[in-house]
Design a protein that fits this description.
Blueprint: H1 2-7, E1 29-33, E2 36-39, E3 44-47, H2 62-72, H3 83-95, E4 101-105, H4 108-123, E5 127-131, H5 148-152, H6 163-166, E6 169-172, H7 177-186, E7 191-196, H8 212-222, E8 226-231, H9 243-247, E9 253-256, E10 267-271, H10 273-276, H11 295-307, H12 310-334, E11 339-343, E12 346-350, H13 359-362, H14 367-379, E13 382-383, E14 392-393, H15 400-418
Parallel strand pairs: 3-13, 5-6, 5-7, 7-8, 8-9
Antiparallel strand pairs: 1-2, 2-3, 4-10, 9-10, 11-12, 12-14
Helix pairs in contact: 2-11, 3-11, 7-8, 12-15, 14-15
The structure holds pyridoxal-5'-phosphate.
């Protein structure tokens, strides 16, 4: 880490990895297998971060490694169409039929900024409505009250984002329909898109109230505004078919990432055919990428989605529920204010009694207790997200034995943390 700090800001390639949210020094990872990772000092951890979401099959799954080996023998990048990108796109569309047409990119940030460009082009409007605590990548328009690493570092917005651009981004509290209605009335016919994480994972785990997403759909329609579901994190995690299946609400545009790349750099944006046909070269909205649709990344995505059957998805979801119920039980027995929830293979918890419905609620949780709990868990071989404002993830490799072991260790960790 000393050498890394000489080379990289904070010694890391992405801010939250630096453990600033919990204090102390990050460990340096050497390898992973299944539900476990090992650091360069030989310590073993049960991993609930899973590369921040992509590894729904766990670390180094045989089917993904086999697909990568077989694919790379034929070359690593071509910059010309391949059959692999068509196969992965068909698999995505089979599970998310509303994603009629899509474009592969290499990061979630690219996906959301491109979807916003399509929305602005289609509507001829400039404003964007997002929610406090939702993170949509680091493109300028989204770095306004953006949750995740930005919140962990206590930055309301990032310097370097031109004020004129930030002024085009409106924010409302998550789960607050009245606030959305008021903003949309105030900026009548000027809002290009409402973008939302259907379940927030970047302010901790915050599910939508049952009425929230349907209300966003209705309000968007009333105002000729497009609805964008940012499913970079929730896609193939909260339900087999994503938010449309989980909540019965369909977005006009959807962004995907993480799981669809099976641990390699892939993301996508897609949706209604009339919208996506406006993207170059079919239409005038320009967006391009040297490594977009990269064959290795496509092969990892195909292998991952092939393995992630409905049965497997449900099994992982069931074990995630067992983890969350176990955590609730531990906190209740120890008399610690606690709330926890999950959707599919995504989960989260806060040290606070009442359920969390917004980022403002999340901020009232006991962050100091979280920090002590995080380190006590890490010392016992459980790696939780190093911030109170991040969701956790499970994988196919987190079996009953791993969940039981995790709960034993976290029971002891909580006892130490609250002492
Ligand atoms: N959108 C959401 C919901 C995310 O969780 C993230 C990353 O965590 C992004 C967008 C940005 O993706 P990337 O880090 O691949 O740029």
């Amino acid at each position: 880490m000393a050498r890394a700090r000489e080379l990289f800001p904070g010694g890391v390639s992405s801010p939250v990895r630096a453990f600033r949210g919990v204090g102390g020094e990050p460990f340096v990872v050497e390898r992973g297998a299944g539900a476990r990772i090992w650091d360069v000092d030989g310590n073993e951890y049960l991993d609930y971060v899973l590369s921040w979401g992509p590894l729904v099959l766990g670390h180094a799954p045989a089917m993904v490694l086999d697909a990568l080996r077989e694919t790379m023998e034929r070359g690593t990048s071509f910059g010309i169409p391949t059959g692999l990108e068509v196969r992965l796109a068909e698999m995505v569309r089979a599970r998310m039929p509303h994603v009629e047409m899509l474009r592969f990119v290499s990061s979630g940030t690219e996906a959301t900024m491109s979807a916003l460009r399509v929305a602005r082009a289609h509507t001829g409007r400039d404003l964007l409505l997002k929610f406090d605590g939702c993170y949509h990548g680091h493109a300028d328009s989204f770095l306004v009250r953006a949750g995740s690493g930005v919140a962990t570092l206590g930055l309301p917005n990032s310097p370097g984002v031109p004020a004129a651009l930030a002024a085009l981004t409106l924010t409302a509290p998550f789960n607050d329909v009245a606030a959305v209605e008021a903003l949309m009335r105030q900026h009548a016919d000027r809002v290009a898109a409402i973008i939302v994480e259907p379940v927030i994972g970047n302010a901790g785990f915050i599910p939508p109230d049952p009425a929230f997403l349907p209300a966003l759909r209705r309000i968007a329609d009333e105002h000729g505004t497009l609805l964008i579901f940012d499913e970079v994190m929730t896609g193939f995690r909260i339900a087999f078919g994503g938010a449309a299946e989980a909540f019965g609400v369909t977005a006009d545009l959807t962004t995907l990432g993480k799981v669809i790349g099976g641990g390699l750099p892939v993301a996508a944006y897609g949706g209604r055919r009339d919208l996506m046909s406006q993207v170059a070269p079919d239409g005038p909205v320009y967006q391009a990428g040297t490594l977009s649709g990269n064959p290795l990344a496509m092969a990892a995505g195909i292998a991952t989605l092939t393995a992630l059957t409905l049965t497997l998805h449900d099994r992982i979801a069931q074990r995630t529920r067992a983890l969350v119920e176990g955590l609730r039980g531990i906190a209740a027995r120890q008399g610690v204010p606690f709330t926890a929830d999950c959707a599919g293979s995504m989960f989260g918890f806060f040290f606070r009694t009442e359920p969390v419905r917004s980022f403002a609620d999340a901020r009232t949780s006991d962050v100091e207790l979280f920090k002590r709990f995080f380190h006590a868990a890490l010392a016992r071989g459980v790696y939780l997200a190093p911030s109170p404002y991040e969701a956790g993830f499970t994988s196919a490799a987190h079996g009953d034995a791993e969940i039981t072991l995790t709960l034993e260790r976290l029971d002891a960790a909580l006892a130490e943390a609250r002492a």
